[in-house]
Design brief:
Helix content: 40-55%
CATH topology of one domain: OB fold (Dihydrolipoamide Acetyltransferase, E2P)
Distance between the termini: 98 Å
Strand content: 15-25%
Structural class: alpha+beta
Number of helices: 5
Radius of gyration: 25 Å
Number of strands: 11
Length: about 180
């Protein structure tokens, strides 16, 4: 009988310790959720900036998980000719934005103050639409859309291109040394 009581006491201590640990984990999860910045949904008409960003009123919004060619960027088509893929991406975004109001769920802000968001237009995911047209690369999502565009050789996948990230990095490097080249030249 004494052993039985001792065993029940040990089980209760183990059970109450487990409950305490679970309560602490739940409390931490709630606190972490409260500390996350919450951004209200925004909607309205928008005008394009480039292939992966636009303006809605005074806010600049950048679509999450894609990277479109920069506005001045050129790509090469299947025949080896240059074409303005950055302008084409912006024009595709403009056509999409003309079809109605955009609804965005902001997630964060980037180092330039732009809202980073997932956005839809009439229920259609804007980032998925641009990637499907072959006018942006997937950078965290939308890999199925990119695979489909690549297989169909749409947009930037019809020939060759420099990734938008590499193109920006090269441009930044040129700007950094441009003052010295101008001084020496």
């Amino acid at each position: 009988m004494l052993r039985s009581r001792y065993r029940r006491k040990l089980r209760w201590r183990h059970f109450s310790g487990t409950l305490t640990a679970l309560a602490a984990i739940a409390l931490l999860a709630v606190v972490a959720g409260l500390l996350q910045p919450q951004f209200p949904a925004i909607s309205g008409s928008a005008r394009p900036s480039d292939g992966d960003s636009f303006r809605m009123d005074d806010e600049r919004i950048r679509l999450l998980d894609i990277d479109a060619p920069e506005l001045d960027q050129t790509c090469t088509d299947a025949g080896g000719a240059d074409w303005p893929c950055g302008s084409a991406a912006r024009d595709a975004m403009a056509r999409l934005l003309q079809s109605g109001p955009v609804e965005c769920q902001p997630q964060d802000r980037d180092q330039y103050g732009r809202i980073l968001a997932r956005c839809t237009l009439a229920g259609r995911d804007l980032a998925a639409a641009i990637v499907s047209q072959g006018l942006a690369v997937a950078s965290g999502g939308y890999h199925d859309e990119e695979r489909e565009a690549r297989a169909a050789r749409r947009g930037i996948w019809q020939g060759t291109f420099q990734s938008p990230r590499a193109w920006r990095d090269r441009l930044d490097e040129t700007d950094s040394w441009g003052w010295l080249l101008n001084l020496l030249g």
